[in-house]
Amino acid sequence: MPAAFSLIVSQGRVADRTDGALVGARRVGDALSTLLRTPATTIGTPSPSRTDDWSTALPEANDTLHGLRDAVAGAIDAGTVPLLATNTCAASLGTLPTVAERHPDAVVLWIDAHGDFNTPDTTDSGYLGGMVLAAACGLWDSGHGAGIDPTQVIVVGGRDIDPAEGDLLAGAGVRVLAPADSTLERVLELIDGRPVWIHVDWDVLEPGYIPAAYRVGEGMLPHQIAAIFAAIFAALPAGSVRGIELAEFEAGDADVPEHVSVELILETFLPLLRAV
After folding, report:
1. For residue 111, what is the domain's CATH number?
2. Is 272 exposed, middle or buried (0-12, 13-18, 19+ CB in 10 A)?
3. What's the domain range around 37?
4. Backbone angles phi, psi at 7, to 5 degrees
5. Exposure string (b/e) for 94-104, b if CB count within 10 Å is 16 or more?
6. Considering its fold, how many domains does the chain have in total?
7. 49 with 251: CB under 8 angstroms?
8. Tens digit of pLDDT per residue, the chain (276 long)?
9. Residue 55: how many other CB atoms lie within 10 Å
10. Which of 41, 114, 223, 266 is deepest in the core (most CB within 10 A)?
11. Which residues pair with 40 in a beta bridge?
């Protein structure tokens, strides 16, 4: 199989507050490498999780974020599609500015229970992962760049959004679709034939399918996400998927056997394999 993808696996701590997401990224990366017969580029070295403020987590993640940025840029320059297995959504602080630079016409399809649109002034938790989209859209300076046009961002499955964060999302022009509104027709209408960069945080799903650190009820189901991906394949021209990030699989959750989650991630991803 030609190497249509450049597989990139994040293994450096980027604000991880649990130990399972780094393990999950590695397990997903291994499974994708086998499926695609493509070697992975590993960025960063694991370190123990801890609960800290964004102001501490951000500088500690500096090397990993720069490494992810360079890996994505290299993949695009090589004419391949970046495919990332990442630990936390905060890893996208290193990827989205490159997307803005290289693919300014792309829609960012942010498939996530959360808006990740807080800033240092609005965050209650101090969690860096809850601030990544706002940084990429230029609402605060992460030190890693910005450039994403918020009117080209679609949050799919969003349902756990702070009031102040909701005001920022609305004011910036980000489209937020609750799970009930995340239909194939509505997603394709908002994409409007444009290329897409796809980010998936598995907490978009109803708990019990693919474990994530933050469980939010009344979520979407795996087949619904796969159907959106299949619809993108059917509706958009070949080559419209400019990159894919799969984040926040919490390995080691006792409620769901790990191999079941990995297989479900692969099955959900498969329509995108055809799209690329």
Report:
1. 3.40.800.10
2. buried
3. 5-275
4. -90, 125
5. bbbbbbbebbe
6. 1
7. no
8. 445 999 999 999 999 999 999 999 999 999 999 999 999 999 999 999 999 999 999 999 999 999 999 999 999 999 999 999 999 999 999 999 999 999 999 999 999 999 999 999 999 999 999 999 999 999 999 999 999 999 999 999 999 999 999 999 999 999 999 999 999 999 999 999 999 999 999 999 999 999 999 999 999 999 999 999 999 999 999 999 999 999 999 998 777 888 899 999 999 999 988 767
9. 10
10. 114
11. 7
Alpha helices in the chain (DSSP H): 20-36, 54-60, 62-77, 96-102, 132-136, 163-172, 184-191, 222-235, 258-275
Neighbours of 4 (CB within 10 A): 14
Say how far residue 23 (Cα) sits from the centre of its chain.
16
With a CB cutoff of 8 Å and minimum separation 6, the contacts of 252 are 19, 20, 23, 258
End-to-end CA distance of the chain: 13
The amino acid sitting at 134 is: A
Whole-angstrom distance, CA of residue 43 vs CA of residue 64: 6
3-state secondary structure of 7: strand
Amino acid at 186: R
Contact 200, 247 (CB under 8 A): yes
